[in-house]
Specification:
The structure is a single chain. With 340 residues, this protein is α/β, with parallel strands linked by helices. The protein contains 14 helices and 11 strands. Strands 3, 4, 5, 6, 7, 8, 9, 10 and 11 form a 9-stranded parallel sheet that branches. A two-stranded antiparallel ribbon has the order 1-2. Helix 1 packs antiparallel against helix 11, helix 4 packs parallel to helix 6 and helix 11 runs antiparallel to helix 14. The longest helix has 19 residues.
């Protein structure tokens, strides 16, 4: 698969852009486990053009992450065009437009998946951004606003016509949020439309190597994007790649390996963001690495309350010692224990 000349290899795997999740340390870990393309957290166009510190900080990328995409969102054309130019200054391989976020504070303003209700505006905004930057522009969107307006086939063709280099489709409508099952049939119809010439990346409910392989083989997508199934499970990229190559499923990582990964992730977070913020923002990840262990409540509490790095590292070592022989095949991965 190629995006505007960028060779991503066969059946590439993408880490989805996720707010408060895909920061530099998490992208670093996912890259180590085989994510072919990673994305920043999505960034407000208003924040970028107003030089908001939090938005500008999200532009920080490293050579290790490449190829990397920067995703921007907004509901007005001019700020989005200016934001794309600012993002291009960070030298990403891809600039991605978020037309898929369903949360009320974004979609309700007409940004994210709110754009599905105004296709002409979506198309014109995309055209203007493509014309304004030299970096390949891609789009991530949904099937439509609701069950009665699944207009993704029209949207895909019109966005292709204004010059996007690839399209990622999440197999739900905005009204579904993250409930129910993703509809991959429509994603497959877009991919197999003879008029479609750009790569199509599928997204939604990819929480196992088996589902990833099915997405490639049954629906013909060029790439697969994994989102919330990576919570506490960045090794899912390794699992998928191994299964695609061999047809065999890898065993779940042992508690000892999870502990090594958690420590590496923690230290990277501290390196990137400093001790206070690095520890604070790791809390959502640390407990997920060990979700499913028995009699873990008090230890989990320590993971999400300790602020001292040596104490945290010591607690992770304790977990490896205490549960080191636990059969992790009995743990249901976090993504499979709830409706994603």
């Amino acid at each position: 698969m190629t995006i505007a000349g960028l060779d991503l290899g066969e059946q590439p795997l993408f880490l989805a852009p996720m707010e408060d999740v895909t920061d530099p340390s998490f992208r670093y870990i996912c890259k180590q486990f085989g994510a072919d393309v990673v994305y920043t957290e999505f960034i407000s166009s208003d924040g970028l053009i107003r030089d908001a510190a939090k938005s500008l900080a999200k532009l920080a990328i490293t050579d290790f992450e490449r190829p990397v995409g920067i995703q921007i969102y907004g509901h007005l054309i001019e700020p989005m065009v200016e934001a794309a130019k600012v993002a291009e200054g960070a030298r990403p391989e891809i600039i991605d437009i978020n037309f898929g976020c369903p949360v009320k504070k974004i979609a309700g303003r007409g940004a994210g998946s709110g754009m599905m209700r105004d296709v002409p505006l979506m198309v014109e905004m995309t055209r203007r951004i493509v014309d304004a930057v030299k970096t390949p522009v891609t789009v991530k969107t949904r099937l439509g606003w609701d069950e009665q307006s699944k207009n993704i086939r029209e949207v895909a063709l019109r966005l292709q016509d204004v010059g996007i280099s690839a399209l990622t489709i999440h197999g739900r409508t905005r009204s579904q949020m993250y409930k129910g099952e993703a509809d991959w049939t429509l994603i497959g119809e877009v991919k197999n439309d003879p008029a479609i010439r750009i790569p199509i990346i599928g997204n939604g409910d990819i929480d196992s190597a088996v589902k990833a392989k099915e997405a490639f083989e049954k629906y013909g997508v060029d790439g697969v994007m994994v989102g919330r199934a990576t919570y506490g499970r960045p090794w899912i990229f390794r699992e998928i790649r191994h299964y695609l190559k061999t047809g065999n499923l890898l065993p779940q990582p042992s508690v000892i390996e999870r502990a090594r990964i958690a420590k590496r992730h923690l230290l990277k977070s501290v390196e990137v963001k400093g001790e206070k913020v690095g520890v604070l923002e790791m809390r959502r990840h640390l407990s997920n690495y060990f979700k499913g262990l028995p009699d873990f409540k008090s230890t989990r509490l320590r993971l999400v309350t300790l602020a001292d790095i040596p104490e945290l590292l010591s607690t992770i070592d304790y977990i490896a010692d205490r549960w080191g022989d636990f059969d992790t095949s009995a743990i249901i991965p976090p993504s499979l224990s709830k409706d994603i």
